[in-house]
Design brief:
The chain has about 150 residues and is of the alpha+beta class. Helices cover about 15% and strands about 25% of the residues. It comes from Novispirillum itersonii (Aquaspirillum itersonii).
């Protein structure tokens, strides 16, 4: 669910409980003050958590979300609540990462979006998951996501 303008925001500036499930989380949006301008917005969540759907044990990831806004920006508090809703949600790494990317793309309708999910090892194997809505636009300056291959991430 989204809002069409900043005056309809329901979470910003109010006490808002963490949603119990990502499907129940409300992603809110605000108008892009520079529509038609090619620029990247980046969100980094270095302490993302979810639960293994088999064992119920916690899984940890460093998420990097880059997007080129169209008409909308994601409101950051709603994004934090959305990401936090995974804390008690059981899903595999691939499902969490791709779901986040697809949900943001559906709500924001960005020019382009990518997400890198850099998951900490479970069973000795780190799993990195990447999703993009397509190739990056021509002429876009796109920095590296800055997360090195696993060596005790930090």
């Amino acid at each position: 669910m989204t809002n069409s303008d900043a005056s309809g925001l329901t979470q910003l500036g109010t006490k808002t409980d963490l949603p119990n499930d990502p499907n129940d989380a409300v992603l809110e949006r605000v108008p892009n003050p520079h529509p038609g301008t090619l620029y990247v917005t980046r969100f980094v969540a270095p302490e993302f958590t979810s639960l293994c759907p088999v064992t119920g044990q916690p899984d940890f990831a460093h998420l990097v979300i880059d997007y080129v806004p169209g008409d909308w920006l994601v409101e950051s508090k709603s994004l934090k609540l959305f990401l936090g809703s995974f804390r008690n949600h059981g899903a595999f790494h691939e499902d969490c990462t791709v779901y986040i990317g697809k949900r943001l793309a559906e709500e924001l309708k960005p020019v382009w979006l990518r997400i890198g999910g850099y998951w900490y090892p479970r069973g000795g194997i780190p799993i990195d998951v990447f999703y993009a809505t397509g190739p990056a636009p021509d002429g876009l300056w796109l920095p590296d996501q800055g997360v090195p291959p696993y060596r005790g991430r930090g």
